[in-house]
Amino acid sequence: MDSWWELGEGSGLSGPASLVHLVTCPFCMERGNFKTAFHAEKKHAASKKRLNFDTLECGNCKGYVMCLWSSGGGGGYDYRVLPYPLRLERHPEEWPKDVGRFWLQAHRNLTDESWDAAAVMARSALQVALREQKASGANLKLEIADLATKGGLPPVMREWSDSVRELGNDSAHPKPGQPPTDRRDAADIVRFLDFFLECVYTLPHRIGEYRARNKKKAPPPGPAP
To answer: pLDDT tens-digit profile of 58-106?
Structure first.
């Protein structure tokens, strides 16, 4: 997005805007318990596009957030919130739920500096995603290589996997005397996971949205000669 006027155009949420049920309070972490304390709009000078500015009040802790939102031409909408929760609350909707569940736990454990748990959850998210993509192999690295060979990943992701040490360790089955996961190794595998899921799920989803949007804009075919 290069301009705030593009908010809600071609991507975002479907249906009528209903931010009071979506927003999580960044102070008490309660979700969907807001009322609108103030609303303002800004209209684009050369189109019907509107930017909406809502100040929402949390019904639990009485904290305030500012929401900027706008509807797009396709009937959907998108929004941004400040301040936003520093703790991740949900995964992108286009990801499988079980992949997203492990991804959230990986990031939360990283924030809590639980390095062993972060690595285990990241490996679990990768394992589920790889199996969902029908990758084969005796371990994570071989499955990643198989998916790359099939064209499901760019070659650079396969090369990167060779340097992520935690992909070669099995933190889920520790041995007596095994050293704890290094914080940098935990951060590396979670970062790899983020890019992996972006390539496998988010990018194809956005391309699909782009094609659907362009299909709607295409003029109908003319009469046959």
So the answer is: 999 999 999 999 987 666 788 999 998 877 777 888 899 999 999 999 9
**C-alpha–C-alpha distance, residues 87 and 111, integer Å:** 8
| Residue range 21-49: mean pLDDT, rounded | 91
Concatenating the DSSP letter of every residue in 73-84 gives TTS-EEEEEES-
Say if CB 121 and CB 105 are below 8 A apart. Answer: yes
Q: Which residues are CB-contacts of 167 (< 8 A; sequence separation ≥ 6)?
A: 123, 126, 140, 141, 144, 161, 189, 192
Burial degree of 187 (CB within 10 A; 0-12, 13-18, 19+): middle
Sheet order of strands, 77-82 included: 34-43, 50-58, 64-71, 77-82
**In sequence order, what are the beta bridge partners of 152?**
none
64, 56 Cβ separation under 8 angstroms: yes
User: What span, in angstroms and rounded, lies between the C-alpha atoms of 30 and 33?
Assistant: 7
Q: Give the residues across from 9 on adjacent strands.
A: none
Tell which residue, 69, 93, 97, has the closest CA to residue 82: 69
Determine the Cα–Cα distance for residues 213 and 44; give it in Å rounded to an integer: 22
Within 8 A by CB and 6+ apart from 75, the residues are 14, 15
Whole-model pTM: value is 0.66
Q: Is 139:152 a contact under the CB 8 Å cutoff?
A: no
Written as one letter, the residue type at 56 is: L
In sequence order, the β-bridge partners of residue 96 are: none
CB-based contact 88:77 (threshold 8 Å): no
